[in-house]
Amino acid sequence: MATAMGGSDELSKTYDDVIDLSLGDPDVTTHRLIIDGAFKDAAAGHTKYTDFRGDPELRAEIARYYGEEFGMRLEDDRIIVTTSGCIAMYLALEAVLDDGDEVILHTPCFTPYPQQVKLARGIPVPLETYEEEGFQINVERLRGKLTERTRAIVINTPANPTGAVFSRETLSQVAALAGEYDLVVIADEIYTLYVYEGEFFPFSSLPGMAERTVTINSFSKDYLMTGWRIGNIVAPAPIIQTIQQINENVAFTSPSVSQRAAIHALRNRREIQPAILAEFRNRVFEAARCIVPIPNMSVPPPQGSFYLFINIKDTGMRSTEIAEAILREAHVLVLPGDTFGECGEGYMRIACACPAEKLREAFARIARMPIFN
Questions:
Q1: Whole-number pLDDT of residue 49
Q2: 181: exposed, middle or buried (C-beta count within 10 Å: 0-12, 13-18, 19+)?
Q3: For 184-221, how does the pLDDT look when each residue is reduced to its tens digit (9 = 90+)?
């Protein structure tokens, strides 16, 4: 289970009746407006390389989105389209880091972050967050992690795996610290639709942050387009220029058909997204309700994303042991909390990527296990 994210596909085939709650790959098909629009465009000839920073129509839609949703004016030279959010993060790190630079990662965090930092020849520095603090960033603890080699801080809200939505106060304090120490903030903002408590706003909209923030966006989650592999970066123009030069040697350009799909996603978002939000809100809260009566298991009230980070410390077992037992005895696949960093020990993460009835069945099976009785 040490490589739980990468090995989840094989583990899901262990039993014929496995309920897979491991990966954030929802079962819902991309909306027909997106599919039909993209393939109509493909038939019309959008099957070639695009501009190196992405289809100009898509860049214009991204700028329009920020203007309509957040009142932000976004110049075209601050935008580049990328082949997924993961590639976007890697490109951002390559662009801003020198060898040996340190990057603060608030943990528990998305599993690839530390390896992505290392791939860019940086040094990942974990910043622990805790359930009793709402998994918010403790800014004084953050200050204590800074050294003369600290170059960047990665911020992810709503957060994977905890579901925490960082407060405006927390983010304003992070912004002040970034300004004080001349740091780059890499804001991973791919779950912006899924906010149930609190608010989402772009980190770059905070005073003074536009010129030191690299924003990572993806269409995978907010539009249920995981397989299209399309995202984008918003950053100061000089960073975008560097990212473009790197990307020309990584992916050249992003898939043209996926870029057309992203255009239709943005243009139709007010028709498409309300149903997505309602469906996943229902799933997350239904799963949380199922957890409440189960002994030796608890979860904070959902705030955001479509994950739940479940406390299983009262079992007295390690996260990996619990995950293995749940797969073996209940035929339910979850990810152990230490997959997301050492401070995730004592937790397990589920992705509410299947219908509510499947989630109820999964927890009914888990509730019958001796360790949870």
A1: 97
A2: middle
A3: 999 999 999 999 999 999 999 999 999 999 999 999 99
Give residue for tokens 């030069």.
245
Residue 33 has which token pair? 């407006």
Rounded Cα gap, residues 75 and 151, in angstroms: 25
Q: How far is CA 277 from the centre of its chain?
A: 16
C-beta of residue 260 within 8 angstroms of C-beta of residue 41: yes
Terminal C-alpha separation, the chain: 25
267-287 pLDDT tens trace: 999 999 999 999 999 999 999
CATH code for the structural domain at 4-29+271-372: 3.90.1150.10
Report the candidate in 299, 330, 298 with the shortest Cα–Cα distance to residue 314. 298
Instruction: With H, G, I as helix, E, B as strand and everything else as coil, classify residue 179.
Output: helix
Q: How far apart are CA 88 and CA 208, in angstroms?
A: 23
Contact 53, 366 (CB under 8 A): no
The residue type of 278 is A
DSSP per position, 53-90? T--HHHHHHHHHHHHHHH-----GGGEEEESSHHHHHH
Sequence spans of domains, the chain: 4-29+271-372, 32-267
Domains 4-29+271-372 and 32-267 belong to one CATH topology: no
d(C-alpha 236, C-alpha 248), whole Å: 19
Among 229, 157, 167, residue whose Cα is nearest residue 188: 157
| Burial call 303-325: b when 16+ CB within 10 Å, e when fewer | bbbbbbbbbbbebebbbbebbbb
Q: Residue 179's pLDDT band (boundaries 50, 70, 90)?
A: very high
Q: Is the pTM of this model over 0.70?
A: yes
For 100, other C-beta atoms within 10 Å of its C-beta total: 10
Query: Is residue 169 over pLDDT 50?
Result: yes
Contact 238, 245 (CB under 8 A): no
What pLDDT, on the 0 to 100 scale, is given for residue 1? 38
Second-level CATH architecture of 32-267 = 3-Layer(aba) Sandwich (3.40)
